[in-house]
Amino acid sequence: MTISKTVFLEKDISQRRLIPEWANCKAVLLVWPFVGSDWEYMLEQITEAYWQILKTISEHTEVWAVLHSSIDQTEWLKKRQLLKITNAKIIDLNVNDTWIRDYGPLTVVNGKGESILADFRFNGWGEKFDAKLDDSFCQHLGKLENLTYETHNMVLEGGAIESNGQGLLLMNKDCVVDEKRNADYSQRRIEKIIRQQLNHEALWIEGIGLTGDDTDGHIDTIARFCNHNTVIYSGRNTQHHDSDALQSLHEQIGRHAQQKNWNLFELPTPVLKSQFEDRFLPATYTNFLVCNQQVFFPIYNCAEDQLALTIAKKAFPNHKVIAMDCLNLLEESGSLHCATMQLTTLNPSPGVNYE
């Protein structure tokens, strides 16, 4: 079924909404590193890291592991059995990149309580990288798993948005109102689409980007909602190479918090360099995954880990905080949240394509 974009944008979607990350999670998508990907120079090392991620998350929810055609599925299944992982299945699809957060589907629910996979465009973080396969991933997943999906023309990456579950979407303007992503979309038009498609109001920060971050400052690397009125963010560090950006983030989040009456938790922000070359890594602790009363929390084997975990437990008093070694993920400028995408309340149904 095809509905024109104009008709869809004028529909009354007052009962339609984006599902926040802390809603009940049916499954987590995880894209496996493969030969020819950006991980090739450290493939064995990163693959072992992914096995640990899979094992830990699958103890709490089902994981859908997306395997590129170059991966030997028989060997993968043998390894899964050896590690006694039972709550994981293979999704056989090809991709360009493993950072599923940014091209994977956003889960929305309509007035009937039906889940829909919202497929916004993805163009390699502003045409920095080839993304043709990633851009079509949601449509292929919807058809493969018989799930309702809809496609939209605007570029919107999953790591660029953060919902408070009550109609407010926190975003870094640099990642959305961007000539390389949405050249034909004004800020006003983007805000209108967010209201109509996701039933959220946009709340912006801007000018915050960490050295080595290809996303231009995704919100999931700098500030996250813990619930509808609690925000945890990457804190100030005068010794950090991006100290000015962190100070600006602190001030902008502080202003929003005062206006919205938020509770704030300030995380440490470590200074880390690549294990392969002399370059800074965009390491933050906000890149965690919330799933079924657990917070899977990235740590980096550095001095700030313990303080970060202590703060996370205070920010999430009703969740179990599970530390996960994500140091290797930083080498390609991401962390745990970037590598995963949650799906909620899935219901099988034919695909719907909104052009």
Describe what you observe in this structure.
The protein has 355 residues and is α/β, with parallel strands linked by helices. The protein has a single domain, classed as L-arginine/glycine Amidinotransferase, Chain A (5-stranded Propeller). Helices cover 26% and strands 26% of the residues. It has helices spanning 5-9, 43-58, 73-82, 124-127, 132-135, 137-145, 187-198, 243-260, 305-315, 336-339; strands spanning 2-3, 17-18, 27-31, 62-67, 88-92, 106-109, 115-121, 149-155, 161-163, 168-172, 201-205, 223-227, 230-234, 263-267, 272-273, 280-281, 289-291, 294-299, 320-325, 340-343, 353-354. The strands form seven sheets. It has a four-stranded mixed β-sheet, with helices on both faces. A four-stranded mixed β-sheet has the order 5-4-3-20. The protein has a three-stranded mixed β-sheet with strand order 9-10-11, with helices on both faces. The longest helix is centred in the C-terminal third of the chain and has 18 residues, at 243-260.
